[in-house]
Each structure stands twice: as structure tokens, then as C-alpha cells.
């Protein structure tokens, strides 16, 4: 089979082998592992775009005002596990891959060690020519800019020297902690057809939590007339519907920006602006730039609170068109290939659940639960309506054998409506049920908090035998 004229992959380490299946597999991966590797990161033919596609995605690894603590005590929002085997950032990167975006920059800063490691390990071997598919740009200091990134606009401005090295015409700005599936090609086509300087993605419907990023007022041609930041979230539903009828649409905080417009906005018109949404976009509107909106009607959720994170995981269990689909063959979800063994189930009763790789489930009952990788559940345990993140490693060796409470969920324990972070040690006959229906409680000293009635067991916490929460 002859290769397309624009197929210009160079032989590097690792180099790629072209196969008639239109897949790219690192030649450094042993043939016996090829099948396992491609199950997690098959590079579709769309991963190799035409040479004239000059769009770069800029993914922000963390946001401000997150209400995900304590899940974000040692990690950024984008690094949060989701649906057993994945991380939130995987959904955004997968959208780019499935939309033919070949250049992705991840700008990271707060608690970014876990996120940086995941991105580097998951996507560094996927390359176009000499260039990695995803490049991580961590916050840094230079003679021109010292200290942390002060916001999204400041981060882009300080990285322009990197971004200008490539023949990019448009930038696609993406938060890394949202869960959705979008064909960015449709967004880009709308941007180009309108000859816009900036195109914003907006929700075509409203919900109680859709106003987090403000609203755009549109005219009949979807041109943005005005932007209102952070409307009062206590507004009544009738008033919201009234707003929608007057062409106000909730922002998704996703933008396509023309490169020349971006440079002028950040260096000439707003050289001191820190936040892109609150300062740069309203500035572009006031300057009379061509700012248009693209309406999105699919599933979208903003992972900015414990309640939203819990809800998204629970929805991943359901087989409905109202939830994020993990099984869409036309828009697969990619992640790090870990080559874990299959989950071992011994006399367990499991219903309406998602089970990650490499678990040990022994004579337990699991219902309506997301079970993460390497989770160990002891005999007689009952888990309902919960998110179990699993473990980063298997236990083994003499040092581990001496630990009184091993990582996992002990025999006879009961868990309901809880989030169990990674590497937690729950002893035998523990009850995490919140029978008193406590809505808010901070008990970090004992390894847990309660928010919105959801019990969150902190990463690495030890819950002694017989404890009741």
C-alpha cells in the first residue's frame, strides 16, 4: 500500500511501523504487547493530519477556585481518576486526537507532578515526525517573567515564544478538567467560515451549574454582542429561561483564537491581563473584533466540585445518551497503557458497575460503583454507589506483609455513597455509611471529610478496624 504524499514520518526512536490497518504502533513495543498496547492507545489514521492544518491546542492543567479539595490536595484537577482506568485530562486530549489536532501543549502549574508524569508517559511515544503529540510546558521563571503563571492569559503570553516556533494560524484553548466529547473540526470550521478573530463554545441548553464561566449574548448570526461574567447562580429558573430566550448562552470556557489576534490582544491591547475569560475576551468584544459563538448540544460536565465529580462517575456506569460514553468506537478514549493483568473475581456479586484493570474482588457485593485499578476488596464487603480510585501499586515483600491494614477494603466492611481516594487502607468491619446524613464535615485529622453528603476518604488514609463514619 502506497503512503499518502504528505506522510512524512521520520525514523526516530521509537519509530513507527506503517501497517495496512492504518494504525501506527511504536516499533519499540514488542510484538506480543502490540495488541495490548493498541487497546489503550491506538493511533487512528486521523492522528496524521494534512500538512496544511495549522492549529495548536493549549490545554490548561488546573483551574482556579476549585472545590475538589481534598482530592486536589496532591494533584491537579486534570489528573483526577475517572471511570476506573482514566484521568480527566485523557478526555480532552482524546478530543484533540479524534478531531485531527496534531499539536497539543499542556500548560501545568499547581500540584502538577502527577499530571506531568501521566502526560509524558501516556502520549510521549505518539509522534508526528520529530515532534511529540503532547508537549508539557510547566510553569517556569525567566528574565522577562518571574514567579508563577498569574492566569490563563499570562501563561499563554509567557509561552508565546514557544508557540511561535511552529506555523500555527489558530490556537484552541481548552480546560483540562472538563468531561465531554466534541468534534473540534466543527468548531474550527465555524471559526473559519465566520472569519472570526475569536470563536467561543457555548452550551445550547442551560442547567443550574452552567453559569460558572459566564454567559454570552448573541445576535441572530451567532456573533457575540456582550459577555457577562459569573452571573448570580442563585437566579431562579424562570429568569434563566428568560435569559436564554434573549440569546444568552452559557460559556464552556473553550475558545478558538486567531494567532495574530492573540498576539495583539496579549502584547499590545492587554499586556497586563492575567485571565483570558475575564479580561481578554471582553476586551476583544469592546475593541470590535469579530467574536462569534459555536453552540454545543452534547454531554458536558465541569469537574469543579466533589458533587460534580461524583455525579460524572455515577453517570459513567449508565448506558444512556445523557452520560459520557466510554464505548464510542468512533471517538475512543485514550490513556496510558499499563499492561495490568485482568481483574480477578471470586464468588463476587457485581451489578451496574465499572471495574478497572488488575483488581482482586473476593466474595464481595458491589453495586452502582466505579472500581479503580488494583483495588482489593475482602470477603463479605459491601460497596454501593461509590467511587473507589484503587491503588498506584501492588503490595508485596516483607515490609508490606508487616503492615497491619493493607491497601484496599477489608473483610466485612460496608461503604455507601463515598469517594475512596488512592492507596487508602480500610480495615475490617469498617462502616462508611453516613447514617446521620451529615452534609458537611471536616475531619482531615482522621482521614476524611463529608461534602454534600458524600464521604471522601483522603489519599493514603488509614481507617482502623471497626471504624464507623
Structural features, described:
The chain has 469 residues and is of the alpha/beta class. The chain has two domains: 55-232 and 244-317, Spore Coat Polysaccharide Biosynthesis Protein SpsA, Chain A, CATH 3.90.550.10; 344-395 and 404-463, UDP N-Acetylglucosamine Acyltransferase, domain 1. Helix content is 22%, strand content 26%. It contains ten helices and 35 strands. The strands form nine sheets. Strands 3, 6, 9, 10, 12, 13, 14, 15 and 16 form a nine-stranded mixed sheet that branches. A seven-stranded mixed sheet has the order 20-23-26-29-34-33-32. The protein is elongated, with a radius of gyration of 23 Å. The chain starts with 15 loop residues before the first strand and ends in a 6-residue tail after the last strand. Residues 1-52, 231-245 and 397-402 have low confidence and may be disordered.
Write down the overall geometry: elongated
β-sheet strand percentage: 25-35%
Question: Care to count the β-strands?
Answer: 35
* Average residue pLDDT: 80
CATH evolutionary superfamily of the largest domain: Spore Coat Polysaccharide Biosynthesis Protein SpsA, Chain A
CATH class of the largest domain: Alpha Beta
What CATH calls the topology of the largest domain is: Spore Coat Polysaccharide Biosynthesis Protein SpsA, Chain A
Percent of residues in helices comes to 10-25%
Distance between the termini: 63 Å
Give me the Rg, rounded: 23 Å
Q: Low-confidence spans: pLDDT under 50, at least 5 residues?
A: 1-52, 231-245, 397-402
InterPro entries: ADP-Glc_PPase (IPR011831), ADP_Glu_pyroP_CS (IPR005836), NTP_transferase_dom (IPR005835), Nucleotide-diphossugar_trans (IPR029044), Trimer_LpxA-like_sf (IPR011004)
Family: Belongs to the bacterial/plant glucose-1-phosphate adenylyltransferase family.
GO biological process, one term: glycogen biosynthetic process
Protein name: Inactive glucose-1-phosphate adenylyltransferase small subunit 2, chloroplastic
